[in-house]
Amino acid sequence: MHDETSYLTAQFDAHHEQLRALARRMLGTSREAEEVLAQARAELGGEAGIREWLVSSVGRTCVRRLQGRAGAEPVAPDAPDGPDPVWLALLVVLEALEPGERLAYVLHDLFGLPLDDTARITGDTPEEAGRLARAARRRVRGARAGGDPARQRAVVELFLTAARARDARALAAVLDPEVVAFSERGPVHGAPAVAEGAAAFARRDRVTRPALVDGAIGVVAFAGGRPVSAVAFTLRGDRIVALDITTGEERVRGLDLTFPDV
Asked: What is the pTM of this model?
């Protein structure tokens, strides 16, 4: 047992910076992050010393800390290198998330873990981990949502047409350079990478219908009359800044889908 604990401690120390980054993004302050790391390190023992388990240990300790904040004095977040307004704004929104949402969002969106890995760490099913991450993502991006639905639908149609034609120039015209595509496999960043995989969203053997996907402008693809994938878009002006991609009939049917009459 002593050798196993020593091994786990060595693994913990080897991944200290990644674990510290996780705790800091979960809690918002360096002081609390260090306190959580010390607590999680002291509780090591009895399980395989793998990175996922270490992340799970720190993540669950953070969740307990967040749950314990209820009714306590609020903790002011700190910034990494001076008062970065974007970082501080993100921390303010993260503070409003439920602990489970925050952990799923940090692991899946900020650290780029696939949903299967995120679910193993959070203790949820991949479907539930995806739901938590999507709910958190909507709240994080909520202030940027909105716009003219007809204009947004026109942008989405341009995207689908360009994707079917594999028209790189037309895709570049509707994708923000910093666009992010979220899927079960984790996020894909940047217009070139998103454009490269765009044809999969608009395969010619599938029928696509415009829809509201979890309240956002989007499309649902059908094969043989069955819904097989859905994409929810976030736009800024006439550019797509994010895509939420869900694949698999069971997962798609679990979304909140509304199909317009026209």
From this structure: 0.57
